[in-house]
């Protein structure tokens, strides 16, 4: 029997507002989110069954949230977590008796640590129970559930349907866990290397009528979403023995709910999901008679491809339920039935959406989409008109479900106030104009003229991913960006520029080599690794010249009307960098030979220079478009360069002829320049770095010689930091891009 030690971290929970640490100027730091509003996939949405207005959201890579009905916003529950792999929530289970208790299974990927979290105060604080069975909150099968369940007749008993290690059980409120050896399916084990993950056990459902208070429930159902002959097991002796349910469908069960009359409803798909699904069904099982009935909304030879995932029952009206399709080829639907699935009503056909508060959801179209990857689906047990569902980009909610009975229109709005669940790829804070320009994965990016308001998605062109953003230091009205072409643009482009601080953009197209076959718009997808389609772009200090980093870099000084190939660079030269003061000067590094190349004619020709002080930098060569930029030029200083080599920061003041290492004892991932401190002449430096085993956000006011930590234990954000940018006009303000919690920014309280 496995009994992991319990690690109690009392402060792991609700994000605090004010730091206890201070900057070098003695000011406490306040941390907030830059508002986008949702943005990512929330596989699960669960209402408390015992308290009105209490609900929980689980995300696949951005933590969990609790709905605060008084504040009318979602509260992030894990901002104090320092563990990056706890961002993916495999399952969440509010206690069915005690409204204050809640449990979560956390683990984003199977290669890293996983745990069961326990809270007695609604997630304000957590007890962490490390467990040996690995999880995959951001792997295939994350739409199933719920895997974690609390016995309503004895809340000391919890079951967890694991991905790789069968059925797990706790009899002491989740403090210790052991494998249920009587369960017939032991699991397929953790797949090696990059092999595809398994979905494992998809749900655990107790029958409350089969037990009594403090004695536990006798009847338990467990679903299996792995390939095999049996996908549903039943126990009628509190887990001592298990039997395959007779007559069960051959497909993979996704979600299940049991109503008060003993009818078990199950959604099915032919793949673990949330993608790759081509077929599916909905069934119900009378657990007393053992009779199965298919109640799939769309049947027959002409039914669209796709399966089913989301499922919720109206607890106030037995026989009323909603289900969602998954990967339906003609667009996903939420179906509603009031007679146990005998007849269905298409809610999509009755639906309108108001996304004015979160305008990126228009995606450049006239109307917002109904949604895709709909798996979190829940009817409020205290209000049958209130229902919500999750998509790949947001959560929609309405209080008008009852309109369906009269065939009246249903208005849905994003239910995401407080939710910031996105992965940020790049960002910059220009010298003038909007304080922040950002590039996101999946949702393009934004010009943040107001950090407290959700902005429209940057368009003309719109990108799926934005990979690079740059601005002209001496003409900050000029900006450039590159990204992955989007299906919402026809024709599509991967480069763009603006001459009015990002208010308007124009597409740009770099030349392609002879014989190159560009992907047509109707075959558009993620073009990872395409050196031409996904090439980065930078701009000269005066905004007159753009350089596109195709394998043979090309330069334009007339906004793309003509192009010239840059000459003199080796094949492996990394990213080109513009000097931030001299418009004619550019730099590039030969990582193979640790040689710096310099251009003094606007990136038309490059020549190597003798450089002293740089170590071997082979290991620092960027290999992916999302890698950190290691070579940086100081704003408004000719020839002032910084380079991060294996975490050590090197500085040159003579155009790269000499580099010297700065502070010792700190390992830097990436940095940026911010406004100088009052009375100082040198710009402040800000970095994502590790010092004394603390990966954190740091500030230096002495050119990198010493560093002060700016975020404290209440604002760890899983230490999943992707980028950093510092404000050029407000001293002390720093922007931090996270992997799952959007963009946060900190500034001194005074």
UniProtKB/TrEMBL annotation:
<keyword id="KW-0326">Glycosidase</keyword>
<comment type="similarity">
    <text>Belongs to the glycosyl hydrolase 74 family.</text>
</comment>
<dbReference type="GO" id="GO:0010411">
    <property type="term" value="P:xyloglucan metabolic process"/>
</dbReference>
<keyword id="KW-0378">Hydrolase</keyword>
<keyword id="KW-0732">Signal</keyword>
<protein>
    <recommendedName>
        <fullName>Xyloglucanase</fullName>
    </recommendedName>
</protein>
<dbReference type="InterPro" id="IPR015943">
    <property type="entry name" value="WD40/YVTN_repeat-like_dom_sf"/>
</dbReference>
<keyword id="KW-0119">Carbohydrate metabolism</keyword>
<dbReference type="InterPro" id="IPR052025">
    <property type="entry name" value="Xyloglucanase_GH74"/>
</dbReference>
<dbReference type="GO" id="GO:0000272">
    <property type="term" value="P:polysaccharide catabolic process"/>
</dbReference>
<keyword id="KW-0624">Polysaccharide degradation</keyword>
<dbReference type="GO" id="GO:0016798">
    <property type="term" value="F:hydrolase activity, acting on glycosyl bonds"/>
</dbReference>
């Amino acid at each position: 029997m496995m009994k992991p030690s319990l690690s109690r971290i009392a402060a792991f929970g609700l994000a605090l507002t004010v730091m206890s640490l201070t900057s070098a100027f003695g000011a406490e730091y306040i941390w907030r989110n830059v508002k986008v509003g949702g943005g990512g996939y929330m596989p699960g949405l669960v209402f408390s069954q015992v308290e009105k207005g209490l609900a929980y959201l689980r995300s696949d890579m951005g933590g969990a949230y609790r709905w605060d009905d008084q504040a009318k916003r979602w509260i992030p529950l894990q901002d104090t977590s320092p563990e990056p792999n706890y961002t993916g929530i495999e399952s969440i289970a509010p206690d069915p008796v005690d409204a204050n208790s809640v449990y979560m299974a956390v683990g984003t990927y199977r290669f890293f640590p996983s745990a069961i979290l326990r809270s007695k105060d609604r997630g304000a604080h957590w007890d962490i129970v490390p467990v040996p069975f690995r999880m995959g909150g951001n792997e295939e099968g994350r739409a199933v559930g719920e895997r974690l369940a609390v016995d309503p007749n004895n809340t000391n008993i919890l079951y967890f349907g694991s991905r790789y290690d069968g059925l797990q059980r706790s009899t002491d409120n989740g403090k210790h866990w052991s494998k249920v050896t009587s369960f017939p399916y032991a699991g397929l084990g953790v797949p090696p290397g990059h092999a595809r993950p398994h979905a494992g056990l998809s749900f655990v459902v107790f029958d409350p009528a089969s037990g009594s208070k403090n004695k536990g429930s006798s009847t338990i159902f467990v679903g299996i979403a792995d390939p095999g002959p049996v996908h549903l097991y039943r126990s009628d002796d509190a887990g001592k023995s298990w039997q395959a349910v007779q007559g069960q469908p051959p497909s993979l069960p996704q979600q299940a709910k049991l109503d008060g009359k003993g009818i078990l409803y199950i959604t099915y798909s032919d793949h673990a999901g949330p993608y790759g699904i081509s077929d599916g069904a909905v069934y119900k099982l009378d657990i007393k008679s053992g009779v199965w009935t298919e109640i799939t909304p769309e049947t027959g030879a002409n039914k669209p491809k796709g399966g089913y995932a989301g499922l919720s029952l109206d607890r106030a009206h037995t026989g009323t339920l909603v289900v969602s399709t998954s990967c339906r080829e003609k667009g996903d639907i939420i179906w509603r039935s009031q007679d146990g699935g005998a007849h269905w009503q298409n809610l999509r056909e009755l639906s309108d959406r108001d996304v004015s508060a979160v305008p990126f959801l228009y995606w450049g179209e006239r109307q917002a989409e109904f949604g895709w990857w709909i798996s979190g689906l829940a009817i409020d047990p205290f209000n049958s008109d209130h229902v919500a569902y999750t998509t790949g980009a947001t959560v929609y909610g309405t209080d008008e479900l009852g309109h369906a009975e009269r065939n009246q229109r249903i208005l849905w709005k994003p239910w995401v106030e407080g939710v910031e669940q996105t992965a940020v790829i790049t960002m910059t804070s220009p010298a003038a104009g909007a304080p922040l320009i950002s590039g996101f994965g999946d949702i393009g990016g934004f010009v943040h003229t107001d950090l407290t308001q959700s902005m429209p998605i940057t368009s003309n062109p719109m990108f799926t991913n934005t990979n690079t953003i740059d601005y002209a230091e001496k003409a900050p009205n000029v900006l450039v960006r590159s990204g992955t072409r989007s299906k919402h643009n026809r024709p599509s482009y991967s480069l763009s520029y603006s001459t009015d601080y990002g208010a308007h953009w124009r597409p740009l197209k770099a030349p392609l080599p002879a014989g190159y076959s560009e992907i047509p718009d109707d075959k558009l997808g993620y073009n990872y690794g395409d050196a031409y389609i996904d090439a980065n772009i930078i701009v000269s200090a005066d905004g007159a010249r753009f350089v596109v980093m195709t394998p043979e870099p090309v330069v334009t000084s007339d906004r793309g009307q003509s192009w010239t190939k840059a000459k003199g660079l080796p094949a492996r030269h990394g990213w080109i960098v513009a000097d931030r003061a001299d418009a004619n000067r550019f730099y590039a590094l030969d990582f193979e030979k640790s040689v710096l190349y310099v251009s003094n004619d606007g990136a038309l020709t490059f020549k190597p220079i003798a450089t002293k002080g740089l170590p071997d930098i082979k290991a620092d060569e960027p290999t992916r478009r999302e890698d950190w930029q290691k070579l940086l030029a100081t704003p408004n200083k000719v020839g002032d360069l910084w380079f991060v080599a294996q975490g050590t920061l090197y500085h040159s003041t003579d155009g790269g002829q000499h580099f010297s290492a700065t502070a010792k004892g700190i390992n830097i991932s990436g940095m940026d320049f911010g406004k100088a401190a009052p009375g100082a002449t040198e710009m402040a430096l800000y970095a994502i770095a590790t010092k004394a085993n603390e990966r954190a956000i740091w500030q230096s006011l002495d050119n990198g010689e010493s560093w002060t930590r700016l975020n404290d234990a209440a604002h760890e954000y899983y230490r999943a930091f992707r980028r950093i940018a510092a404000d050029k006009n407000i001293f002390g303000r720093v922007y931090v891009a996270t992997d799952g919690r959007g963009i946060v920014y900190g500034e001194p309280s005074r």
